[in-house]
Amino acid sequence: MVILKKIKASTLMETLVASVLIVVVFMIASMILNNLFSNTIKSNTRVIEAHINELQYLYKNEKLTLPYYEDLDKWSVEVKTFKEQNMPKVLFEANHMETKQNYSKSVYANN
Fold first, then answer.
1. Which spans are transmembrane here (predicted)?
2. Which of 9, 26, 59, 93 has the most CB atoms around it within 10 Å of its CB?
């Protein structure tokens, strides 16, 4: 029979301190990940970008009458004409009502 060497055991206090440190590290990591995910969700503009592209398509094919106003989820969408350097342009603008985020595109007006 083989005799095993004795391994020095740790005290209860050392075990508790190590456990607390591990828990604190995981808590901080989970708070950081939660913050990253919530910021990613708040700054996601894919839906409104797709809707603005759809409105541009409708405008180019003369299916959209200007000025155009719409509320989409929590976004306020506005399409209007303006002049820049004596050239008529169309501004597609969306504003988020809660986060005050702004997304806009402009194209040259149809003749």
1. 12-33
2. 59
Report yes or no: 75 and 95 within 8 Å, Cβ to Cβ.
yes
What's the whole-model pTM score?
0.66
Is residue 8 predicted with pLDDT exceeding 70? yes
Which tokens go with 37?
A: 């995910």
The number of CA neighbours under 13 Å toward the Cβ of 62 is 2
Helix, strand, coil share (%) of the chain residues, nearest 5: 40, 30, 30
Report how far residue 71's alpha carbon sits from residue 78's, in angstroms, rounded to the nearest whole number.
9
Could you count the other beta carbons within 10 Å of the beta carbon of residue 52? 21
* Cβ atoms 81, 93 nearer than 8 A: no
Supply the pLDDT for residue 111.
61
